[in-house]
Design brief:
Number of helices: 5
Number of strands: 3
Radius of gyration: 20 Å
CATH topology of the largest domain: Aspartate Aminotransferase, domain 2
Largest sheet: 3 strands, parallel
């Protein structure tokens, strides 16, 4: 029996067409996109073209689209960025105890920097109670971070 992989939140196979383009770029076009030489300018053109196509398909501006190396880096960029951007409004954050470690570790760092984090419990299905979220809200709450789909228990909102 062929195994079935269901944790596409953690890792997803690359579409063969994408893999083909990536292989060509990695073996034929490998310049540093931050360099000013011709290899770098060519690489930057490819990256910016990809950014333009993705932004157009998502209905956003290309400069709103940021490439990261993975989920942890993305979590850090979003959470530290949101906290820093809103610090003048408050320093209270709401999350749950079952968030990914990348999220929980980010909040641990923010707590050391003076932020207050409320960790809400979840039920046996991994879901947070909306009334508990409402009850946790404060005048200085700047961020609520709750995963939409839990990769460990399979729950989703």
């Amino acid at each position: 029996m062929k195994p079935i992989y269901l944790d596409h939140a953690a890792s997803t196979p690359v579409h063969p067409e994408v893999a083909g383009v990536m292989l060509k770029i990695m073996t034929e076009q490998f310049g540093n996109a931050s360099s000013v030489h011709s290899f770098g300018r060519s690489a930057k053109k490819i990256i910016n073209g990809a950014r333009d196509r993705i932004a157009a398909s998502l209905g956003c501006f290309p400069e709103e689209w940021v490439f990261t190396s993975g989920g942890t880096e993305s979590d850090n960029l979003a959470l530290f960025g949101a906290a820093a951007a809103s610090v003048v409004k408050g320093k209270h954050i709401i999350t749950t105890r079952i968030e990914h470690h990348a999220v929980l570790h980010t909040f641990e760092v923010l707590e050391k920097e003076g932020y207050s984090v409320t960790y809400l419990p979840v039920d046996s299905s991994g879901l947070v109670n909306v009334d508990e979220v409402r009850a946790a809200l404060r005048s200085d709450t700047i961020l609520i971070s709750v995963m939409f789909a839990n990769n460990e228990v399979g729950s989703a909102y």
